[in-house]
Amino acid sequence: MNDQLIYSAIRAGIGLYLLAIAAIVMYRKTRLDIFRSDLFAVRDELFLDAARRGVGFQDPAYTDLRNSINGLIRFAHQFHLTSIVLIVLFTRNDPEQKSALDAISGIADPERKAYYLDIYHRVARRALRYLLVEGSQAMIIIPAIAFYVLWRTRGRWLNELPPRVIDSLIRLGRRDSEEASQLKAYMHARP
Fold first, then answer.
1. N or C: where does the chain have the smaller number of CB atoms within 10 Å of the terminal CB?
2. pTM flag (> 0.70)
3. Domain check: are 40 and 99 in the same one?
């Protein structure tokens, strides 16, 4: 191997490494900004709904829900799986710990109660997506969940596939089928 080839390989490796670092740093910052932006939008929607309904801004359900969203926005940069586990472990037996759900359950108006529950669940789903799916831990969590689901179903999901999909796969597998010849033509036409 000549020196020029080695030098080019080293330069390419360093460039790819720096590009990966930049992408990771930028992705984390962008991911955090998008998460906070989504929470700001939900909080604004909650505020506008409270103003439209004439609900006092000192209402316990409104303030607890708003404070929960504000806490997520404020501490989103520290929102990691380990911090959540520690918070749950140390606050689960705290009798003073009050949930926004407790205040929401005290709402008399069924329409407003349903709306606040919807807001609560939307925030919870978005936080879980941020925590489990969008982060670097997703590389561990998603395959683990997929493996668990496949192990639990033990292939039953194959029986639940729609027959149309199975028929398409069977037709594709036949040598003289129109689908197989179209796929072959496509594969040979690609550069």
1. C
2. no
3. yes
The label of the residue with tokens 């505020």 reads: 47
Same-domain status, 148 and 178: no
150 and 184 in a single domain? The answer is no
Q: Which domain holds residue 98?
A: 31-154
141 and 190 within one domain: no
- Contact criterion met (CB below 8 Å) for 55 and 111: no
